[in-house]
């Protein structure tokens, strides 16, 4: 946590469970406080995707914690035809493989406390393995290509797509 009025002042604690950290963080939970408070975040902006998709999911999950009263928004900034895009595609394939393998391991059993485990169709598993997790949930029409051809002002004015990954 860094104070904006006194940039040299930092508050740090050696671990997330110690009482020192809690004592320092508690006063900063109010919305009008000047210090940065990551536990109050409701927006996740991923501007540099990791090769391990679990790291990106962890960043998103930190915003979706217990007690979050606000709707959470996740933005991923990717440049078309770039190394970043290639990394995202590879991470998506890894995530798709994880989901397909975990689903096959769970079989038709009931989940722990979450009710029945979601079963994928053969087509969904083929999409997860062949295209990756993100491609499998995208729409099948040409909307993605139209979106990429628009300029940023058009996108910001009238385009918003919410993708829910469960």
TrEMBL record:
Gene3D superfamilies on file: P-loop containing nucleotide triphosphate hydrolases
GO MF term list: hydrolase activity
Keywords: Hydrolase
Superkingdom, natural source: Eukaryota
InterPro entries referenced in this protein's UniProt entry, alphabetically: CHD (IPR051493), P-loop_NTPase (IPR027417), SNF2/RAD54-like_C (IPR049730)
Protein name: Uncharacterized protein
Protein source organism: Champsocephalus gunnari
């Amino acid at each position: 946590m860094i104070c904006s009025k006194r940039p040299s002042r930092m508050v740090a604690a050696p671990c997330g469970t110690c009482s020192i950290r809690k004592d320092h963080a508690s006063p900063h939970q109010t919305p009008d406080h000047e210090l940065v408070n990551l536990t109050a975040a409701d927006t996740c902006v991923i501007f540099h995707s990791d090769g391990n998709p679990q790291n990106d999911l962890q960043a998103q999950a930190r915003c979706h914690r217990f007690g979050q009263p606000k709707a959470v928004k996740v933005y991923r900034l990717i440049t078309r035809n770039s190394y970043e895009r290639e990394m995202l595609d590879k991470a998506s394939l890894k995530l798709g493989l994880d989901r397909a393998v975990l689903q096959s391991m769970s079989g038709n059993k009931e989940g722990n406390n979450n009710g029945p485990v979601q079963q994928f169709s053969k087509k969904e598993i083929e999409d997860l393995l062949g295209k990756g997790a993100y491609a499998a949930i995208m729409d099948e029409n040409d909307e993605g290509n139209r979106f990429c051809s628009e300029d940023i002002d058009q996108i910001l004015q009238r385009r918003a797509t919410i993708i829910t990954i469960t």
